[in-house]
């Protein structure tokens, strides 16, 4: 039972589920998991020290910031290469781009299909 718990902890699948995965890939997965665990332990030891207690809030803030999604429009370049950052300008550029994209006649007239009658 302990081996199964260790496998789950380190992200290693049981042998029945590991079809087609080389032993080298499994070894690499395990080494990455062990390195991550070592880094977590070092961070924990650092935060438990007296100097680290002052940095707890800074580390928590960094962790929260790294997990945030990017929301909203950032910037877009127009046809001339000018960068637009205002929301209204970005929306207008997207509208122009989509209008151009949807109105282009990209059908190849040389393509023909055989006529097929009923089922």
Measured between the Cα atoms of the first and last residue, the distance is 59 Å
Shape assignment: flat
Spans of at least 5 consecutive residues whose pLDDT stays below 50 are none
How would you sum up the major sheet? 2 strands, antiparallel
What does this structure look like?
This protein is mainly alpha-helical and 119 residues long. It has two domains: 2-52; 72-105, no CATH class. Helices cover 56% and strands 3% of the residues. The chain has five helices and two strands, in the order H-H-H-H-E-E-H. It has helices at residues 2-9, 23-48, 50-54, 56-66, 87-103, and strands at residues 76-77, 83-84. Strands 1-2 form a two-stranded antiparallel sheet. The N and C termini lie far apart (59 Å).
Please describe the structure with a list of short key phrases separated by commas or semicolons:
2 strands; two-stranded antiparallel ribbon; 2 domains; 119 residues
What's the topology here?
Layout: H1 2-9, H2 23-48, H3 50-54, H4 56-66, E1 76-77, E2 83-84, H5 87-103
Antiparallel strand pairs: 1-2
């Amino acid at each position: 039972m302990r081996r199964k718990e260790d496998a789950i902890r380190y992200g290693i699948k049981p042998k029945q589920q590991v079809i087609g995965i080389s032993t080298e890939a499994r070894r690499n997965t395990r080494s990455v998991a062990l390195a991550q665990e070592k880094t977590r332990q070092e961070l924990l030891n650092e935060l438990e020290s007296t100097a680290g207690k002052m940095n707890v809030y800074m580390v928590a803030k960094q962790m929260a910031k790294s997990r945030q999604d990017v929301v909203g429009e950032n910037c877009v370049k127009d046809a001339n290469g000018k960068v637009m950052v205002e929301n209204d300008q970005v929306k207008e550029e997207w509208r122009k781009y989509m209008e151009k994209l949807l109105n282009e006649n990209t059908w190849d007239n040389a393509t023909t299909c055989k006529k097929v009658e009923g089922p």
